[in-house]
Write the C-alpha cells for this entry.
Amino acid sequence: MNSTVPVRPAPHGWIILDKPLGLGSTQAVAAVKRNLREAGYGKKVKVGHGGTLDPLATGVLPVALGEATKLAGRMLDASKVYEFTVQFGRQTDTLDLEGQVMATSDIQPGFGAVESILQEHFTGEIDQIPPAYSAIKVDGERAYDLARAGEDVQLKSRRVTIFGWEYLAEGFVGEWDASEQYVTLRVKVSKGTYIRSLARDISLALGTVGHVTMLRRVKAGPFDLSRAISLDKLNEIGKGAALEQVLLPLEVGLDDIPAIDLDPEQARAVRQGRVLTGLPHEDGLCWAREGITPVALMELSGGEARVVRGFNLSDVAE
C-alpha cells in the first residue's frame, strides 16, 4: 500500500510578513519555506524576498512565492516608507543600538531645529554614504564582515531621493533623565536609502551625534502593514491553516502599473515571447492578463509591447 501524501501544487503570490525584532530577512524566508514544507507544498517552491530588513528593524517584508519571485527585483527598486527614532548624544559604530559607542556629544539640538534641517538639507535628492555595517560588497566581501573583522571600511557615496517627512514624536530619554533628546520620524525614500545613515547625517548637521533606536518599515512598494501578518500567523500555515488566508495574488505586486487585457490569440503570442503591435496604450511598463490570469510584465513603446518577464500561470486559467 502506497501511503505517500501527494505534494500540493506550487503556490504563486505574496506573503507580507510583519518581520519581528531580531529576525533576519534570510531567516524570515527560511520560516516561510519551512511552513510551506510542513503544509505539504514540498521543497521545490521558489521563495524570495523583496528587500532586506536588518534584524533590529521590524515591519513590512514582502515574500514572493513561485512566479511572483520574478517580481522581487521590482520590490527592491520600489520606494519604501519607514518610521524611526533618532536618539541624540551618542553615535555607535553600527549607527544603531547593536554597536559600541564611538562618539558622544553634550549638544541637544532642540525640536524646531530638527524640523528645519530636514526640509533644508534632507529633502529631494541627496548624497549618502552607506553604513560600514551593511550588506554592500567590497572586493567580493560583505562590508559588515569586514567591519566586524576590524577593517576600516570605506564605502562610496550614492545619490538617493527623500520624498517627504512626517514628524511623529519627540521627547527625552527616561522618565527622570532628560540628558538625551529623541525624535521619531516617518520618511518616504527611494531604493538604496539607508535610514541609519540618514540618522547619522541628520545628527551631524545639527552639530551633534546620534543613533537609531527604533526602525520600522511601514510600506514597501504597494505593500503596507494592513496586509502584513505576524510570524505566529505564518506558523499556523504549517499546522494546517489554509495558505489562501494569507497569500496575496501575484498581481497585487503590480498595483502601481496599468493592466492591459489580451484576447486568447494575443495571450498565446505573448506566452511565445512575440511582440504585440498596434496597441492604443501609453508608453511604459504594464502587465498583461488574459481574463484574471497574469500573462507577462511588458514594456510598451510606440504601440508595441515586448515581454519583460513572462508568468507561467497557464494552469490557473484552465
Notes: The radius of gyration is 23 Å. The CA atoms of residues 298 and 307 lie 4 Å apart. Residues 25-38 form the longest helix (14 residues). The first strand starts at residue 13 and ends at 19.
